[in-house]
Amino acid sequence: MFITGLTEKEKSRRYRERLKADPEELAERNRKKRESYHKNKKLISNMPSEDKENCRIIWKLRKQSQRNRQKAVRNIIENTPPSSPSILQEINLEDHFQPTTPRPSRAMSSKNEKIRGRKKFDETGLNYIEKM
């Protein structure tokens, strides 16, 4: 009979359980991590001027991309129509409609046949690509 070893997930779970079982060891480990963080942390006030500039440029670009992501999400939320009229949401739809079974899909005649009604989006995912 062949016995398999523990997976990485199981090993790390057991390791964390062992650490949590001994609060003193956990506190010591956390103290060492905190000391290491403070020792290796770099303050911008202690950097040379070139590194400061580079750091601030990186921060600026990251903030720009964060704002663009938030703006895209906001646009999607604002421009998405509601899923159903508010009157239908107040009515219990289960009482009025019976669930239907899905129809079987038709087999495509060839692999290269395009599905009608499918539209392609640009890289932002917000606008349709027009056919030329």
Automatic annotation (TrEMBL):
Residues 1-49 are annotated as: Disordered. It comes from the Eukaryota. Residues 30-42 have a biased composition (Basic residues). Residues 18-29 have a biased composition (Basic and acidic residues). This is Uncharacterized protein.
